[in-house]
Amino acid sequence: MPPPPIDYASRHYWAGTIKMGLSKFFILRVLHDGPMHGYDVARAVERATGGCCSPTEGTIYPVLREFEAGGFVTATEEVVQGRQRRVYALTDAGRAAFRVALEAWMEATTALQDTGRAFAAADRAKAEKGCC
């Protein structure tokens, strides 16, 4: 059975797509502040984004494993509040990746803002002309 068609007119689709990309960026961002275990990473991302990105365990741990495999984070076993936890810390490569990601997201943000302004200006011009 083929997958259902993607609804590109759905805000839910676009919000999910954006959040997937931003989650990786914000995981690097919060680890830039210092080492923490996965649950703390998820909560820190949620706080840093004002709730826009709220990564789940199903999202956070695969990304952390991917970053660990790539040498962007290290993981050490520690006892936290009586429980064995993996604590993740950025490596130098992870800090460099964060800087590159920040530059890329800032460029994309600028392009989005420029597009939004141009779109709004075109709408105003059409409205002023009374044209559709």
What does this structure look like?
The protein is α+β, with helices and mostly antiparallel strands and 132 residues long. It has one domain: Orthogonal Bundle (Arc Repressor Mutant, subunit A), CATH 1.10.10. It is 64% helix and 14% strand. A hairpin with a 2-residue loop joins strand 2 and strand 3. Helix 1 crosses helix 2 and helix 2 crosses helix 3. The radius of gyration is 19 Å and the shape is elongated.
In short:
The chain has 132 residues and is of the alpha+beta class. It has helices spanning 11-32, 38-48, 57-69, 92-129; strands at 36-37, 73-80, 83-90. The chain has one domain (11-129): Orthogonal Bundle (Arc Repressor Mutant, subunit A).
CATH topology name: Arc Repressor Mutant, subunit A
Oligomer class: single chain
Strand content: 5-15%
| CATH class categorisation | Mainly Alpha
- Regions with pLDDT < 50 over 5+ consecutive residues? none
- Percent helix range: 55-70%
Number of domains: 1
Number of strands: 3
Question: What attributes characterize this protein structure?
Answer:
132 residues, alpha+beta, Arc Repressor Mutant, subunit A, 3-stranded antiparallel β-sheet, 4 helices, elongated
